[in-house]
């Protein structure tokens, strides 16, 4: 078994590493500060729905896009692995400062909840690449497509919980705890990226690896 995706557990662990919204929480807390509970919950739902739709569109169209551009899965594995390496290193950099909200009115706040909180801080290019690579292994096993879909649904619920209870999570973990958690996820993302690269190389040069 590898992280290329052959079980529900691998799908969920892979998504949990690259689609977690821990990097988005500081900015999210900034924009909900001073808002009424109803508005906070609305922003939580908008950010979560955007992340979910991003993952679903990627699931059902990602492989088709690769075929349209005649991009082979091994090549995309290597490219996706390099992208995940970049994402992992970025998560390991605890000094990175989140972008600031674009304005104080609620319309601008909603825009910030979509970009950059939902995209790319929660579901960015690394998440899309991971879903496409996972999806590419499910064509001969429809039940695994269902497993990947369920993993996306579970991940969406986790994202919603993280946004909904972000103030309590920060209070419980503290800034140091969030930093450590982000670095752990970054390390897992690095490992997944390396595995994707190794699998892509072995598929392209079977006699080399």
List the helices and strands and how they pair.
Blueprint: H1 8-18, H2 25-32, H3 37-68, H4 73-92, H5 106-122, H6 125-135, H7 142-164, H8 166-204
Helix pairs in contact: 1-6, 1-7, 1-8, 2-5, 3-5, 3-6, 3-7, 4-6, 4-8
Question: What report would you give on this structure?
Answer:
This protein is mostly helical. The radius of gyration is 17 Å and the shape is globular. The protein is 77% helix and 0% strand. It has one domain. Helix 1 (8-18) runs antiparallel to helix 6 (125-135), helix 3 runs antiparallel to helix 7 and helix 4 runs antiparallel to helix 8 (166-204).
Q: Notable features of this structure?
A:
single chain, 209 residues, mainly alpha, 8 helices, disordered N terminus
Query: Based on DSSP secondary structure assignment, what is the total number of beta strands?
Result: 0
Work out the count of structural domains. 1
Main sheet summary: none
Query: How would you state the average pLDDT, rounded?
Result: 86
The low-confidence parts are 1-5
Distance between the termini: 16 Å
Question: What level of helicity do the residues show?
Answer: over 70%
Would you summarize the structure shown here?
The N terminus is likely disordered. It contains 8 helices and no strands. By secondary structure, the protein is mainly alpha-helical.
């Amino acid at each position: 078994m590898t992280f290329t995706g052959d079980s529900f557990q691998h799908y969920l662990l892979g998504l949990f590493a690259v689609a977690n919204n821990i990097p988005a929480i500081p900015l999210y807390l900034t924009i909900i500060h001073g808002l009424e509970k109803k508005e906070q919950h609305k922003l939580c739902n908008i950010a979560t729905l955007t992340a979910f739709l991003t993952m679903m569109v990627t699931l059902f169209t990602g492989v088709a896009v690769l075929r349209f551009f005649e991009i082979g899965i091994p090549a995309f594995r290597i490219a996706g692995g390099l992208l995940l390496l970049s994402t992992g290193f970025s998560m390991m950099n605890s000094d990175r400062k989140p972008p600031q909200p674009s304005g104080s009115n609620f319309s601008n706040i909603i825009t910030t909840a979509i970009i950059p909180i939902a995209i790319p801080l929660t579901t960015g290019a690394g998440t899309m690449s991971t879903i496409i690579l996972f999806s590419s292994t499910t064509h001969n096993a429809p039940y695994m497509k269902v497993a990947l879909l369920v993993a996306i649904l579970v991940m969406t619920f986790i994202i919603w919980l993280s946004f909904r209870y972000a103030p309590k999570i920060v209070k419980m973990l503290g800034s140091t705890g969030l930093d450590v958690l982000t670095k752990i996820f970054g390390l897992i993302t690095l490992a997944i990226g390396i595995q994707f690269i190794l699998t892509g190389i072995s598929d392209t040069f079977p006699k080399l690896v």
